[in-house]
Amino acid sequence: MSTGETEPVSADPAIRTRHAVAARSPLAVTASPYAGAMSPDEWERRIGELWEDADVSDDGRIEAMLTLANEAPHPALGAFELGGAFDSAGREFEAHAQYEAAADAGLADVDVARAAQLAVQHASTLRNLGRENEAIAMLRDAPAHATVGAAPAVFLALALHSAGRHDEALRVAIEALEPTLPQYRRSVRAYVAELTAE
C-alpha cells in the first residue's frame, strides 16, 4: 500500500545496489533490513551446506536460497547463487534473470571464481533458451579460472553444436582435450585444423 511518501535514498552503496538490482526484475534479490547481518564465512558455510544437501527438493532449495540471497554479503553473490538454484531446478527464465542481475551488480569485481562460473552457467542457460549465438559469444569471452578448468570450451562446443556449427563444435571439444594427451598432440592439432579449413 502506498503512503505517498518517498523512500529516502541510502548513502550506503551496497544498499543502493540492492535496490537497483531489485528494480531490474521481479525475481531479483530484494533488499532486506537484515542483509549483511550474517558473517561472510557463515553465509558461505550455509550456501555450501545447502548445495550439498541431497535430500532437499528443488523448490525447497530455491526457498532456502532466496532467504540466503537476501542475507548475502553482496547482492551479486546472492543473485548468482539464487540463479544457480533456479538453474538446477530447470527454471531457465528465472535463472537467466538472476544471472543477469549478478553480472549487473558487479560479480566480476566481488568474486572472480564465481564470475568464471557465471559465464559457464549463464551461457548454458542461454543455450537452453534457444539463444545459442549469445551463449557462444559469452563463452568465447569467458574468464579463465581453476574452478571451471576447461568447462568454457566444453560448453562452447555444446553451444556451437546446438547452433548447427558441428565442425566448429568438434574442433573446440578436441582442442580442449588435446593438452591432456600424452602423445599424438601434433597430429591431433593438424587434423583438428582441417575441420574448419576453407
Describe this structure in words.
This protein has 198 residues and is mostly helical. The chain has 11 helices and no strands. The chain has helices at 13-24, 40-52, 58-69, 75-88, 92-104, 107-110, 112-128, 132-140, 151-162, 166-177, 185-195. α3 (58-69) packs antiparallel against α4 (75-88). The chain starts with 12 loop residues before the first helix and ends with a helix.
Order of helices and strands: HHHHHHHHHHH
Q: Rough shape?
A: elongated
Output the structural class: mainly alpha
Estimate the strand proportion. Answer: under 5%
Helix content class: 55-70%
Low-confidence stretches: 1-28, 30-36
The overall pLDDT, averaged over residues, is 86
- What would you report as the Rg, rounded to the nearest angstrom? 20 Å
Key traits:
198 residues; mainly alpha; 11 helices; disordered N terminus
Provide a concise account of the structure shown:
The protein has 198 residues and is mainly alpha-helical. The protein has helices at 13-24, 40-52, 58-69, 75-88, 92-104, 107-110, 112-128, 132-140, 151-162, 166-177, 185-195.
